[in-house]
Amino acid sequence: MAAALRPAILRHIRIPVQTLGRSRPLPCLHPLPTSMIRSMSSHGDDHLTREEVVERVLDVVKSFPKVDPSKVNPDVHFQKDLGLDSLDTVEIVMALEEEFKLEIPDKEADKIDSCSLAIEYISNHPMAV
Amino acid sequence: MAFSLRGVRVPPNSASVEEARRRTLDFFKSACRSIPAIMETYNLYDVVTPSQLRSTISSEIRKNAHITNPKVIDVLLFKGMEELGNIVEHAKQRHHVLGQYVLGRGGLVQDLGPKDEGISEFLKQFYASNYF
């Protein structure tokens, strides 16, 4: 009884599926595919320009109390040129983390020794704001 | 438990000064990462900036920078972790945090009034602490 009823019900419920003909040309970019508009992303998908990154990194380094602002340029090395020690380097990296809303893993943070490396890392980081 | 948030992952037995140094820097990083939470908990937004707190933490760490014995460094790290845990889990209160980390030595000291002008150095030190 149920076995006969089931296909009858299903015949009413099932929606006929149509496969799209392959002959229709696939619209690539027009209209804009919805995967490119992340309307619920809170992070802002506009990537930072390099000048902006350089600007902000230098600002962070200059506002560090132990640093002489006149010596700061995009190539300066924290320990060799600015005379800071490893604790100060870590502090600058943490200040950069706060500025760009990043979280830098330990292995990467150890390598950041100079302004140029910092700018490099931040520019390549996809989540930098 | 004090370490519910901080996570003392490594048992406190540093093999060498290098390992102790590593753990000090890790402690400093975890302290800096919890600064936003601390500012939120104790409502320090108008009082101090995160970079000032970072400087305070680094100067506290730097006070003991001359020590070379890894076991002593471990003990100091333990105490630091405990302090950080206390502050993060709101076991302290705002005036503790302000007095210990925001205002320096001259912040909470009572002003010497006219009655105290004639006292000796000994008495001034005696009023400040037991050990001098």
Give a count of the beta strands of chain B, DSSP E runs of length 2 or more: 0
Topology order of chain A in helix (H) and strand (E) letters: HHHHH
- What radius of gyration of chain B results from the CA coordinates? 18 Å
Number of strands of chain A: 0
Biggest chain pair interface: A-B, 15 and 16 residues
| Annotation field: number of helices of chain B | 6
Query: Gap between N and C termini of chain A, in Å?
Result: 64 Å
- CATH arch. level architecture of the largest domain in chain A: Orthogonal Bundle
Determine the strand fraction of chain A and express it as a percent band.
under 5%
Total domain units of chain A = 2
Structural class of chain A: mainly alpha
Overall form of chain A: rod-shaped
Mean pLDDT of chain A: 80
Write the layout of secondary structure elements.
The complex is a heterodimer of chains A (129) and B (132).
Chain A: H1 2-13, H2 50-62, H3 86-100, H4 106-111, H5 115-124
Helix pairs in contact in A: 2-3, 2-5
Chain B: H1 17-33, H2 35-42, H3 50-63, H4 70-88, H5 94-102, H6 121-128
Helix pairs in contact in B: 1-3, 1-4
Subunit structure (chain A): Complex I is composed of at least 49 different subunits.
Keywords (chain A): Electron transport, Fatty acid biosynthesis, Fatty acid metabolism, Lipid biosynthesis, Lipid metabolism, Mitochondrion, Phosphopantetheine, Phosphoprotein, Transit peptide, Transport
GO molecular function, one term (chain A): acyl binding
Keywords:
heterodimer; A: 129 residues; mainly alpha; Non-ribosomal Peptide Synthetase Peptidyl Carrier Protein, Chain A; 2 domains; 43% helix; rod-shaped; B: 132 residues; 6 helices; 57% helix; 0% strand; flat
